[in-house]
Design goal:
Chain lengths: 302, 326
């Protein structure tokens, strides 16, 4: 019984970090209809900025917001310079369906090799600012440590803030409108391009937070070829797809579902089946609902 | 518009001459180049499987590394457990991967764009790690795949690498010849119709889902063949030999080749093999620091990829063809 509860806690913590990554995927998908595989690279880069701050100043608490801000700036610049060029050039022919995927993969490689150039390919480490030892309850040790609690709080605040912005402000309305019908939004006076850039910036910030939290939650090691970040990319994307790619709520639900399922498989079946479980889960969800858990339209062509 | 269309016989002769040229080449260049040649041939098969899938049938796969793994493991299992001859190992690799491809394709046909990309990505992350779960797959170390020494009739000086090169090149030539015939047949036309106008194709009586599944199956079979070739050149199969980056590299190669032209496949294959070497000599020439030397290949590949997508999105061969037509 206690083990089930602990597994649940581990699943929720992991899932909440995937949720941030999934949210950034969804934001980019909604604003530009691009699946951004460079998201992992962008998150990695902002985490490196965070590392630099910790290295110089020594404070994780300062590093976290700075990583988020730098993530936002990097993402906005990439959208402004790169994605606009891409959408202008490769929007016809057989390449159109895969050009964005391939281009963001290229971007991922570019960012990784630049990180390798500036910071080296060896591991650097970020120390966890809070204890990773679980709270004790009587004689049992909970799988909830101060660090994990902090992660849950940060993610909850970010998700609530984002939901508020999206559902209750004019900016959120503009974001939703320009994703839904760019031409009409333009006629209604929304600066669609600017709104897109903003969507990317928010996604970049969420990615930066995911990177900082994931690194502090794990063993703290950080390298350009970090497996953790590849997994963050894969699991974030899988969560987003499970959730339907179009909905923030779906992304969060998908991520929590994925985190929980993976945690239970890890505890009760075995570590080597974790990755294939993610695949099977995705497959099952997509076979039942081809457009994700939360999908407004019945079906979608092309 | 009248295009020069060589007949089937002359195409076949072209492949034969290419084969003879490759044999001649393998006798003149040194060992390292012969080994790289075998790798190029492997990439030719692997990239052509992506071109078939993406350029012709319009589906995206980021998980072909996993299908390569299926082929590699299939070949190794046949070799180790039944001591099967090489050609049978390769055939087994093709069948096994095609079987997985058919299963995957049946689901893939229901998905499109990002959903398909996500599923195949999850497969690439997940499938190779299964090897850790089952003992007969050898865990993290993987299995040995030893095709044996070259036959004695080829002479004593005939090296192992040259044998690899011969097998890989012959396999690549045969599969390319078969594939280009297939793409010019009814099936190729059907796939193109489905890719460009799937609704119109459906109205014309084409069974869209079936044609997509078929494309996925054949593509997976080719990927399995490439996996067997890859395992042959490195003599082992292990989860580590099929990382996510392999799947990404294949997609890169396909884009650099031009996704709609099978003929360009050699460009992508040579690029993938040549870039590390070019980067190395470049780094040495400019006397770069250690960090720069390590990261230059990645930088060049990614840069090339981005430049290709931005400026020659349909690939160099298609670009030249279009320019000629103007």
């Amino acid at each position: 019984m206690f083990q089930i509860f602990n597994t649940f806690l581990i699943g929720v913590t992991a899932g909440s970090i995937y949720a941030l990554m999934a949210i950034s995927m969804v934001l980019v998908w909604r604003s530009t209809r691009v699946v951004n595989f460079a998201q992992a690279g962008m998150a990695l880069l902002s985490t490196y900025f965070g590392y630099e701050v910790i290295h110089q100043v020594g404070s994780y608490w300062l590093a976290l917001p700075i990583a988020m801000i730098s993530g936002a700036i990097v993402a906005a610049v990439i959208e402004l310079v790169f994605m606009r060029l891409l959408l202008k050039h490769s929007s016809q022919g057989a390449i159109a369906s895969i050009a964005p995927i391939i281009a963001t993969l290229g971007l991922l490689g570019l960012i990784k090799s630049m990180i390798g150039y500036f910071w080296g390919n060896q591991d650097v480490s970020i120390e966890s600012p809070l204890s990773n030892v679980g709270f004790t309850l009587g004689t049992q040790t909970l799988a909830l440590s101060p660090m994990k609690l902090f992660i849950l709080i940060v993610v909850s605040i970010l998700v609530i803030a984002l939901t508020f912005v999206f559902q209750r402000t004019n900016l959120g309305l503009a974001l939703r409108a320009s994703a839904y019908a760019p031409e009409i939004s333009r006629l209604a006076g929304i600066k669609v391009d600017l709104v897109r850039t903003f969507g990317w910036a928010v996604a970049g910030a969420a990615g930066g937070a995911a990177g900082m939290l994931q690194t502090a939650n794990g063993n703290g090691a950080l390298s350009p070829d970090s497996l953790e970040f590849s997994l963050l990319l894969a699991f974030g994307f899988i969560s987003a797809v499970i959730g339907g790619l179009d909905s923030l709520l779906g992304a969060v639900l998908g991520a929590l579902l994925l985190g929980l399922v993976l945690a239970f498989v890890l505890t009760y079946i075995g570590g080597s089946l974790v990755f294939i479980t993610a695949f099977v889960l995705l497959l099952v969800v997509l076979l039942i609902r081809p457009a994700g858990i939360i999908s407004q339209r019945a079906g979608r062509r092309a | 518009m009248h295009k020069f269309k060589p007949s089937n016989t002359s195409r076949f002769l072209g492949f034969v001459f290419l084969g003879i040229f490759l044999v001649y080449l393998s006798n003149t260049v040194d060992e390292l180049r012969v080994y790289q040649g075998a790798t190029v041939a492997m990439y030719v098969v692997a990239i052509s499987s992506i071109i078939l899938l993406t350029g012709y049938s319009g589906q995206v796969s980021l998980g072909h590394g996993a299908l390569l793994a299926v082929g590699g493991y299939g070949a190794a299992l046949l070799r180790n457990n039944f001591n099967a001859p090489i050609w049978l190992c390769f055939a087994g690799a093709v069948l096994m991967a095609a079987f997985w491809g058919a299963l995957l394709g049946a689901t893939a046909a229901r998905l499109s764009g990002p959903y398909l990309a996500g599923t195949t990505l999850a497969l690439a992350v997940g499938l190779p790690s299964i090897a850790n779960q089952f003992k007969f797959l050898g865990g993290e170390q993987g299995l040995i795949f030893d095709i044996g020494l070259p036959p004695a009739s080829l002479g004593e000086t005939f090296s192992q690498y040259k044998w690899f090169f011969w097998i890989a090149s012959l396999t690549a030539l045969i599969s390319m010849w078969w594939l280009q015939n297939l793409l010019r047949s009814r099936y190729g036309r059907t796939w193109r119709a489905v890719r460009t106008q799937s609704i119109a194709a459906e109205l014309a009586g084409i069974h869209v889902a079936r044609s997509k599944v078929l494309a996925f199956t054949i593509s997976a079979g080719l990927a399995g063949l490439a996996g067997a070739l890859l395992s042959m050149t490195i003599s082992t199969v292990s989860p580590g030999a099929f990382p996510l980056s392999l799947s990404f590299a294949l997609a890169t190669g396909a884009v650099i080749s031009g996704v709609t032209t099978l003929g360009g496949v050699i460009i992508g294959a040579v690029t993938l093999v040549a870039i590390p070497e070019i980067a190395d000599s470049l780094a040495r020439r400019i006397g770069a620091s250690e960090n720069a030397t390590i990261n230059l290949p990645g930088l060049l590949v990614s840069g090339l990829l981005i430049v290709t997508v931005l400026f020659i999105p349909n690939g160099p061969v298609e670009q030249i063809r279009q320019r000629k037509m103007k």
